[in-house]
Amino acid sequence: MKKTKKQPEIIEDVTITDAGAEGMSIAKPDEKVVFIPFGAPGDIVDLQVFRKKSNCFDGKILNIKKPSDKRVEPVCQHFGLCGGCKWQHLEYQWQLFYKQKQVKDNFDRIAKIEYPEISPILGCEKQFFYRNKLEYSFSNRKWLTDGAPAGTYTEEDCKGFGYHLPSLFDRVIDIEHCYLQADPSNDIRLFIKDFTMKHKLSYHNVRAHEGTMRNVVIRCNGKGEFMVIIVINEENDIVRNELIPALSAKFPQIVSLMLVINSKFNDMISDLPFECLKGEPYLIETMQSPRPGFDDLKFRVGPVSFFQTNVYQAERLYKAAFDLAGVKGDELMYDLYTGTGTIALYFSRFVKKVVGIEYVEEAIEDAKINGNFNNISNAEFHAGDMAKVLTDEFIAEHGRPDFIVTDPPRAGMADKVIEQLKKIKARKIVYVSCNPATQARDLQLLDELYSVRAVQPVDMFPHTQHVENVVLLELRVEC
After folding, report:
1. With 74 labelled, which of 23, 228, 352, 476 sits at a CA distance of 20 to 30 A?
2. Can you give the pLDDT at residue 479?
């Protein structure tokens, strides 16, 4: 006998009570814990509940019977589809409230250690147009939203240029206007789309691995200068001899224009040659010194350089770390997971010496270039796996640090790194994190020797659930 498919459960008049991880809201009807996208705490809704995960459920709002007073109208026409800006429907002050609450919840639930009152989160003045890097993809299978019957679309109708649909690697949402990057970013993207459509250039088919147009990366700096990187699957005379000159003539703001040919089965381009067809193969970004009277830092940002995507808030993040460190001027500082050396160089003029360590060799090369670019001679950088580089021998050679700044990836620090930090016993550790959950786990492991003295959240990405957090750890007196 054929099994009857179980129908999703529908629960009416449910109050959403909280905002949770991954941008989800939370409701607890009938003692269930249900995670719901695009809800706002205080909404009264009808829910469809499905996909049981241990003791939790996923849900979908069918109807908002009474909207929360925390809810606002999203400004973006693509809200709810592209996967970004998941909290755009929440008033900004409430976004900040729930980000700060996220830090506290992780500390209470995971770290379970003593900590002082959390300082008020540093909000972002620029809630839109704050990103300095965006990447768009071409696809011959865009997500169709106009409701026309299947089979009525032409090949041209199905071409899209925008962001990948969440969890669908071969589909993109055709973006009309994005609120993440300053003008003329949208106009540049639309110009490229109109040109490629007019000239009938083929868009990438991920499954068949064919089609000329693959990706476009748009970077900008605080001066309003732009870098555009066009990625194609194969050499194309129209792209090289017509699109690129037309783009350059139309937008004088583009001071760096590059072409990359990527015929691989993945979109990674960091290992491929970049052909610079206009300007220099980098932008210059500036960052204000943490103390008055000193020149701004300048960074050369190349096509694949890692640089904080919100430089306005990066200054506040680094300033918070600098202030918590209580720099005096005679210290030896270690910067773990230094990336391209931004934190190390930010501190360098106010300490005796900085030693930066980073896994990615290309990032270390960028760090050295930027050190020379700023005439900084007291910062040295080393490439390699953190757990293998930060050894007793390394400490003996380079000196025991007075304080350490660590800014690991979302996964946090490896156990071996934490054990080495316990052996080093630096007087202070400033822990910068983009993931309060793994940070809380690491703080619990360090609690034996270190006490938390200050906690400072920073909002780097308005309208998302992400929050950065800076923690000051001090070595316990008895150690």
Report:
1. 228
2. 55
Taking Cα atoms as reference points, which of 246, 208, 239, 215 lies closest to residue 229?
Answer: 215
Confidence of residue 233 (pLDDT cuts 50, 70, 90): very high
158, 276, 434, 479: which one is catalytic?
434
Task: Kindly report the pTM of this predicted structure.
Answer: 0.94
Q: Is 158 a catalytic residue?
A: no
Answer whether residue 125 shows pLDDT above 60: yes
Confidence of residue 367 (pLDDT cuts 50, 70, 90): very high
pLDDT band at residue 320, thresholds of 50, 70 and 90?
very high
SS3 per-residue string spanning the chain: CCCCCCCCEEEEEEEEEEECHHHEEEECHHHCEEEEECCCCCCEEEEEEEEEECCEEEEEEEEEEECCCCECCCCCCCCCCCCCCCCCCECHHHHHHHHHHHHHHHHHHHHCCCCCCCCCCECCCCCCCCCCEEEEEEECCECCCCCCCCCCCCCCCCCEEEEECCCCCCCEEECCCCCCCCCCHHHHHHHHHHHHHHCCCCECECCCCECCEEEEEEEECCCCCEEEEEEECCCCHHHHHHHHHHHHHHCCCEEEEEEEECCCCCCCCCCCCCEEEEECCCEEEEECCCCCCCCCEEEEECCCCCCCCCHHHHHHHHHHHHHHHCCCCCCEEEEECCCCCHHHHHHHCCCCEEEEEECCHHHHHHHHHHHHHCCCCCEEEEECCHHHHCCHHHHHHHCCCCEEEECCCCCCCCHHHHHHHHHHCCCEEEEEECCHHHHHHHHHHHCCCEEEEEEEEECCCCCCCCCEEEEEEEECCCC
**pLDDT of 152 strictly over 80:** no
pLDDT of residue 26: 95
What is the pLDDT confidence band of residue 366, given thresholds at 50, 70 and 90? very high
